[in-house]
Design goal:
Elements (H helix, E strand, L loop, with lengths): L2 E2 L9 H11 L4 H14 L3 E2 L12 E7 L2 E7 L6 E8 L4 E12 L2 E9 L12 E9 L4 E11 L27 E4 L6 H10 L6 E10 L4 E3 L5 E4 L2 H16 L6 E8 L16 H10 L4 H9 L2 E5 L2 E2 L22 E4 L9 H14 L3 E5 L10 H9 L2 E6 L1 E3 L6 E4 L2 H14 L1
Helix pairs in contact: 2-4, 4-9, 7-9
EC number: 3.4.11.-
InterPro entries: Peptidase_M18, Peptidase_M18_dom2
Organism: Glycomyces albidus
């Protein structure tokens, strides 16, 4: 494990407590954007619609939202010299409700769902689940809905009927991961009528929906000294929340413009009109800069930098052989710089220096993460956005256990360290 700085005990858990509240308020990307907007507006930021004229270079804080993605920024000096971007994502692996969801089998009412992202199936079995998401109405307006109580369950087959379950079980995503929500005969339209009623709208006026299963267990501290923090959606609301906190706190940045870019759809490849592979961020940066001069934009981008923040794998105590023998991040050790020779993570020497300067400015410990040569890891928005913008980009994140599970685990101090890192990049 490579580290820097001194890991000092952090007895103030206010940041992680606030993260817990943010997670509870943000069961879907659409709710996360709404909660982020609420916090930004309370801090004086103003929402800009993409269809409106924008006040290019106007001092102060602004943000815009598109399809579960949010980009926010604050201008101190109108003579913008560079952008300092903290990137994250708002989505999480789960199950998405199909367009016509009412199913029935053997006297049970069920809901048809589709796997969204890299879901470890077993972690979602026998859990009380709710449903949340958005309804798009006849007039094009959007209504958020969250049924915040137990509603669904994906039942496990009893061990008596599957004696080999502990020797490995592969579940069929179409036939064996369908949640139940009642007994009796399925009636077409019943589920969406129920959801519309929960949202306080007429089901006949619902013309589209994006609904997802939601893990209900509230965030909690673990351990004798509460050194660990468990929750669903640590990947990647830890980064979205850290970016919001740092952006609100960033003042006196001069000609550098701090930006938070939290994208939807990272878990399924980002190839949407609002994802990291879309022109959404570039369009916003051009409008913030103002004018149509490609030369001015190119010079500004060349002076800019992005920090792509996502969770990474902490060394697993029961499977240490799955990790590089030297680079073994642990909870409480601070954020990681994520390195890949094949650019699965967008980090090289220049990027490493940017990370270390930011960590040094923040006065926090840090760690290095590298995959085993024979176990390729995932990737992030870093290589995508860095390539899209032609901008220096470094990949960072928190070390966690049980990534993509319905219950993930990190160090209690690390979310605060991550926000400090973002602020260090914004202000130095």
């Amino acid at each position: 494990m490579s580290t820097g700085g001194a890991a000092m005990p952090r007895f103030d858990r206010s940041h992680t407590d606030d993260l817990a509240a943010f997670i509870q308020a943000s069961p879907t990307p659409y709710h996360a954007c709404a909660e982020a907007a609420k916090r930004l507006e309370a801090a004086g930021f103003r929402r800009l619609a993409e269809t409106d004229d924008w006040p290019a270079g106007e001092p102060g804080g602004h943000y815009t939202v598109r399809d579960g993605s949010i980009i926010a920024w604050r201008v101190d000096d109108p003579s913008i010299g560079a952008f300092r971007i903290f990137g994250a994502h708002t989505d999480t692996p789960t199950f998405k409700v199909k367009p016509d969801p009412d199913l029935g089998s053997a006297g049970w009412k069920q809901i048809a769902v589709e796997v969204y992202g890299g879901v470890p199936h077993q972690t979602w079995l026998d859990r009380d689940l709710s449903v949340a998401g958005r309804l798009v109405m006849r007039d094009g307006s959007e209504v958020l809905v969250h049924v915040d109580r137990p509603l669904l369950r994906i039942p496990r087959l009893a061990i008596h009927l599957d004696r080999g379950v502990n020797e490995g079980q592969k579940l069929n995503a179409q036939t064996q991961l369908t949640p139940v929500w009642g007994i009796g005969a399925a009636r077409p339209g019943e589920f969406l009528e129920f959801i519309a009623a929960e949202a306080g709208v007429d089901a006949a006026d619902v013309f589209g929906h994006d609904l997802f299963t939601v893990a209900l267990d509230p965030p909690a501290y673990l351990g004798k000294d509460e050194e660990l923090f468990a929750a669903w959606r640590l990947d990647n609301l830890t980064s979205t929340h850290a970016g919001i906190a740092a952006l609100i706190a960033a003042e006196g940045t001069g000609a550098n413009v701090p930006v938070l870019a939290a994208f939807n759809y990272e878990e399924i490849g980002s190839t949407t009109y609002s994802g990291a592979q879309s022109p959404f961020l570039e369009t916003v940066l051009r409008r913030v800069l103002g004018g149509d001069a490609d030369e001015a934009y190119a010079k500004t981008i060349a002076a800019s930098a992005m920090m792509s923040s996502d969770t990474g794998n902490a060394v697993h105590p029961n499977f240490p052989e799955k990790h590089d023998p030297v680079h073994r991040p642990i909870p409480g050790g601070g954020p990681m710089i994520k390195v890949s020779a094949n650019q699965r993570y967008a980090s090289g020497a220049e990027e490493h220096a940017l990370f270390r300067r930011s960590a040094e400015a923040a006065g926090i410990p840090w760690q290095t993460y590298v995959n085993r040569n024979d176990i390729p890891g995932g990737t992030t928005i870093g290589p995508l956005s860095g390539t899209q913008l032609g901008m220096l980009t470094v990949d960072v994140g928190l070390p966690i256990l049980s990534m993509h599970s319905a219950r993930e685990l990190c160090g209690s101090d690390d979310p605060g360290y991550l926000a400090d890192l973002a602020l260090g990049m914004f202000t130095h």
